[in-house]
Amino acid sequence: MTDQIEIHKGLAGVVVDTTDISSVNQETNSLLYRGYPVQELAAKCSFEQVAYLLWHGELPTADELEGFEAVERGQRALRPEVQALIEQTPVSGHPMDVLRTAVSLLGALETRFPDDERSDYEKSVRLFAQLPAIVAYDQRHRHGMDPVPAREDLDYASNFLWMTFGELPDQTVIDAFRVSLVLYAEHSFNASTFTARVVASTLSDLHSGVVAAIGALKGPLHGGANEAVMATFSEIGSADRAEAWLEDALASKKKIMGFGHRVYKNGDSRVPTMKAALDSLVDYYNRPDLLELYTALEQAMGDAKNIKPNLDYPSGPAYHLMGFDTPTFTPIFAAARVTGWTAHFIEQQAHNSLIRPLSQYTGPAQRGVRPTGRGLG
Ligand SMILES: CC(=O)SCCNC(=O)CCNC(=O)[C@H](O)C(C)(C)COP(=O)(O)OP(=O)(O)OC[C@H]1O[C@@H](n2cnc3c(N)ncnc32)[C@H](O)[C@@H]1OP(=O)(O)O
Ligand SMILES: O=C([O-])CC(=O)C(=O)O
């Protein structure tokens, strides 16, 4: 009877639970965070307001925002143990490895002070405050540059750029960066968030969930694609070579990074907003060549496969123009997504059922053990 079992490879199309946090709707091509269209949030809200919304279910009042910002800004400084860890990790390690290891250390430091027991929400806000500092410290360390201390007078997005570059860019750049963070913050049961929920379902701790989620995000079929887009652009070189490059790549069965999506089959709802942010950066940095390459590959992919870009396609070149190192792109994604991951971790534990699917066994039939070597005797 086993041949009648329906296998849902990759859990494609399977609804495994409910969530109040966000809805990704492929029919209407929309993404809502707690009911609000993400495009409106990107146009009207700071990243702190969006983070608060994801955790609390409502946008903050002025007083609530003031209190939330004060807590976040007060926890930006890295402990010496975390700074030492970043400095000691070999630079051959990917920045996602550094981030994953640093979050693991932060988890160990949380439990070192049992009198200081914080709720998962409080731990989430602390992670939210710390991740930009880790990412910025690591990028600067790799260039042999001194770290730049956080500034409590700056909002989250501005301070992230300040700590990375040691100067504040023009408002155009800050806006584009803030928009990218809002768009990256949450996307229902994507692979990394589902990973965090699996960890949550065993009643493990929040930092373990985030460490596991960082591991899942790193892969090029998920968050790692924003870095891979820049590798593709470097390989192609210029717009006039895009079509021929794509023909070769598809002929050798390569997946084209930054294109396609498990849920959206008609284009990613977030791409128009991020593309507008990229356009503003292209104008600001006067890089029409990059836009030409972007457009040429998008058109060629549309003609060849009718597959559309996902959010990683415009985000990669946007971060490149801002001056981030390519391997830092996915850690930025992680810093934004820690809001969604932790909101899901908390939601999973509030309505928990251990996540443990079944599999259909296809290995050898039962057989007796007949050791051919020395055996036990
Ligand atoms: C923020 C994010 O994480 S968004 C996702 C970022 N990831 C990427 O950009 C990586 C590239 N994209 C992909 O690999 C895929 O589109 C995924 C993994 C995102 C989604 O994949 P799935 O839902 O499993 O679709 P699947 O891989 O079955 O693709 C369906 C068909 O489209 C093709 N296809 C889908 N995406 C691509 C792509 N990027 N390049 C080439 N072909 C593609 C597949 O080869 C397949 O063709 P076939 O039916 O002829 O075999
Ligand atoms: O939803 C997904 O599968 C991937 C994605 O776009 C995201 O995590 O932002």
Automatic annotation (TrEMBL):
Keywords, comma-separated and alphabetical: Acyltransferase, Transferase, Tricarboxylic acid cycle
Pathway: Carbohydrate metabolism; tricarboxylic acid cycle; isocitrate from oxaloacetate: step 1/2
Superkingdom to which the source organism belongs: Bacteria
GO cellular component term, pick one: cytosol
Gene Ontology biological process: carbohydrate metabolic process; tricarboxylic acid cycle
Location of the active site: 261, 312
InterPro entries in alphabetical order: 2-MeCitrate/Citrate_synth_II, Citrate_synth-like_lrg_a-sub, Citrate_synth-like_sm_a-sub, Citrate_synthase, Citrate_synthase_AS, Citrate_synthase_bac-typ, Citrate_synthase_sf
Family matches, as SUPFAM superfamilies: Citrate synthase
Family from the record: Belongs to the citrate synthase family.
Protein name: Citrate synthase
Native source organism of the sequence: Gryllotalpicola protaetiae
